[in-house]
Amino acid sequence: MNIYSVTKYHPETRGEIDEWTEISDINRTFDGVVFTLEEYLRVESNYVKAIEQIMFYLGVKTLTVSYLERRDYDYRPFSQHAFNELYPIRMRELRKKVKPGKVMSRDQVPNMFRLMFRNTLYAELEYKENESDKQYTFKVFFGYDYMMGVHSVKDLSPLRDELLHLDMYLEH
Question: What contacts 41, CB < 8 A, 6 or more positions away?
């Protein structure tokens, strides 16, 4: 099994400069720059694109929730309208209804990951070639400090350059 981290952090400067690590850091200053919702959404979108690229590369069409924890909304915009834009009804419904064993289609995965990135869910998602398999062939989860863990039986190093175009770093 190959074990990777996919992160927004440049390997040469990680830990050297002050960087945001979660959605609740919005409106705080890091390295002299105010961290905005727009920047958060840009980076979050890159993470979603990265996992979509990995799934496509591996031929993974579904992911199964193997572990789940629900959490409160870590970041709440000032208005209900802004909250509804950040957490549309489909996303809130997914958060409410998802449970271990739920099979997520490729079109549900982006909202699931957004909920995970926004700290409203902690989940581990797996793919098995066959339902009867004991071991997964692909697993993804989102850890502390905005680091995405990826386990794969297939080598993902051919994706390194594609992920760099998203400002994402694949580390083995």
Answer: none
